[in-house]
Amino acid sequence: MSAQQSRGLTSRAVALAGIVASMITAGPLAAQTTVTMWTFLDPNKTSPREVALKEIIAGFEAANPSIRIKVEPQDFAQMPPKFFLGHRTGGNPDLVWIDAKNLGGLSQSGAGADLNALVTKAWSQADRDDFFVKAGWNAALKDGKLTAMPLFHGASVIYYRKDLLKAAGIDPASLTTWDALAAAAKKLTTDKDGDGRVDVWGFGMPLAAIKTESTPALIGMLDQDGGPFKGCKANYATPEGIKSLGFTADLITKDKVTPQEALVQNVDDITEQFTAGRYAMAITSNLRFSVIAKAAAFGGDNIGIIAWPSWSGKKPAPMPVSGWWIAAWQKSPRLAEAAKFIDYLASKDSIAKWMTVGGQVPIRKSLLDSPFLKQPANGWMTTMVDAWSTSSWMEPTECNTRTLQSALNEAVSRVVLDKVDPKAALQEAERKFADAQ
Amino acid sequence: MALPETADYWGSRPPQPLVMPRRRRPLLSADEIRAYGFVAPLVVLEILFVVTPLVIGFYYSLHRVDYFELTSFRGFDNYWRVLTSPMVLASLAATAIFAIGALILTLSVGLSLALYLEQDTRWNIFARAAALVPYVISMLVGSLLLRWIFSTDSGLVAAALGPFGLGDTTILADPTAAMGALIFNAGWRDSAFAMILLLAGLKSIPPQLHAAARVDGASAWYRFRHVTLPLMRIPILIAVVRLLIHFVNVLTFALVLTGGGPNGATQTMGLAMYRLGFLDARIGEANALAILVFLFNIVLIAINVVLFSERRRAAP
């Protein structure tokens, strides 16, 4: 074989290899890319938020035919730790939903990709400023990196039955102080059939140590200068803290508007009991509004939400900010596609879908003048927006705040059952917080 | 003629003993290879799912773990923290009260059922099956049912106590009553398991012993005291150890029925571990507690193994 023949053969082989290689690579490019997402919602189910998610995914897939979103529903409590573990072992989805208590972990573990680089760098400043709950946006921002994008915000709030308050002659707008709340709860605690047993309790609080929400024991001390934390050190045993804990315990022991059984009731129990008509007012998450409204035997239109009372009544106590954020896994091989879906989820259209179909409070300012919010049935959303706009509070994401509500709930139990001095009970709670750091 | 000192009769080579060359024994016989083959899958599974997590758990227990990242080496500090933690010490006390209470209730009911239902009549076979119902339904579902039953607002217990003016009696929110409810939950579910273990023991007692005692005029109580109980010693001990292992480790009863409350009164070790690890994100300390509970379990299992071997020796 001459040198010329050999060169010709080589060039043909190279060309053939090129064709084969291009065929191999062209295959996957032409095929769909599947982006996997962990969330606690299942788009195959029928709750309002699940229907909203299904519609959002359908809209995205129609606009991006080469990307398919595969949802793998997870238990909401186990999802974040499972994701952090997966970051080490390499078995994570491309996208994950993260709650407020795990935003710090997301940042510290390095599992979350920088969404500023992937998504928001293409946004205008006005678009970024459109997210009006600043505490929620900033919670995922560290050293200029945005590790998660808010989807919808939530908070522990006070629900009330409009019919019962009306019958008792109570204007919900008048419940601006803790004392007014206790007095209203007394009026609402009734024994309808006169058998000596309370049929409707005035005020329900989830005081179990697991599946918690914020209660007056915490909200009452948010008014104090500097809040309940100094860095990652709990500062509960203050005059405001003692007053707040005493007030919460008194609702059971002195005012008798909350049953003692609330000490072992978690947020699921309280929500069920409120839905069943056992409480006239109760604390649960605003994220559950659509579900409660759908299930309540007394009618979804009959439910309202009030802003948190305060000691002075001059302005509401700060509204906590929790809810759900979405993050992309740092090591995902499909980061570009995942980022595209996050961009779509954060769009005005998607947030509007969360509002109108999912029953969630909109987190974009540009949606606040939507006619949907003007409807009387959605008045509670306006209450939430106003409260967050006036004063909001977010747990410090750099600390382990998982013991915050549970330790305060145990402090309530210590005061009610063991007759422990509130200050000593709060000092115990401070130690529990310190141990968890 | 004298032979030279350096040489023998056969010349310079000393005489060699006449022995057959030994065949080297194979390392393992065919039977042994087969036996190991049967055992191997189980050993592999044990290594994968028990030994490996145990080693990793021990390694984690020596570190501070933040979001599953080992951030610093703590040595045995996590063990010290766990052993001096008021929450863990309270859970140790709660576990002891629960385990002993549940053991007494379960064994008493289980033994009574076993004695009552020992004969294989149609009714007894039906009653044994009925007694097994709480044991075969899901532990979670059973505890959830009892949670509703004990609820003050809508529970059967409150409704039953209502006519006596005790309708507002709080069971789950009272520390003592909640522990009673937890023990009841365990007894309700696991008495059937005790019954099965003890029934097997009762069936192994030769009937002629009872017949002979009866001929000698022994009363039913006397026969129970001096024939049945001595021969049931090992089955009862096995039931005690097995139930104790179960009660020390069980999580579901406390998690579902009381959530560990009120005020930690029913927070058992299993629930304390769950809280430390999954709720409070204190993975290092949760692993340290898990290792300590594991060591306690080893002691109980060792007792169980010894009892089993005693029973096998005692078997006719």
UniProtKB/TrEMBL annotation, chain A:
Tagged with keyword DNA repair: no
The entry's keywords: Periplasm, Signal, Transport
Primary subcellular site in the record, as a coarse category: periplasm
Protein origin, superkingdom: Bacteria
Residues of the signal peptide: 1-31
InterPro entries to which the protein is assigned, alphabetical: Bact_solute-bd_prot1, SBP
Short name of any one Pfam family annotated for the protein: SBP_bac_1
GO-annotated cellular components: periplasmic space
Coiled coil (residue ranges): none
Subcellular location field: Periplasm
Alphabetized SUPFAM superfamilies for the sequence: Periplasmic binding protein-like II
PANTHER family noted in UniProt: ABC TRANSPORTER PERIPLASMIC-BINDING PROTEIN YCJN-RELATED, ARABINOSE-BINDING PROTEIN-RELATED
Family per record: Belongs to the bacterial solute-binding protein 1 family.
The name this protein goes by in its record: Carbohydrate ABC transporter substrate-binding protein (CUT1 family)
UniProtKB/TrEMBL annotation, chain B:
Keywords for this protein: Cell membrane, Membrane, Sugar transport, Transmembrane, Transmembrane helix, Transport
Any Gene Ontology biological process: transmembrane transport
Gene3D superfamilies: MetI-like
Residue span, ABC transmembrane type-1 domain: 92-304
Predominant localisation class: membrane
Subcellular localization(s) per the UniProt record: Cell membrane
Annotated GO CC locations: plasma membrane
Membrane topology type: Multi-pass membrane protein
Entries under InterPro entries matching the protein: ABC_transporter_permease, MetI-like, MetI-like_sf
Keyword field contains Acetylation: no
TM ranges: 33-60, 88-117, 129-150, 170-188, 234-257, 288-308
PANTHER family: ABC TRANSPORTER PERMEASE PROTEIN, INNER MEMBRANE ABC TRANSPORTER PERMEASE PROTEIN YCJO
Family to which the UniProt record says this protein belongs: Belongs to the binding-protein-dependent transport system permease family.
Name the record gives this protein: Multiple sugar transport system permease protein
Species, as recorded: Chelatococcus asaccharovorans
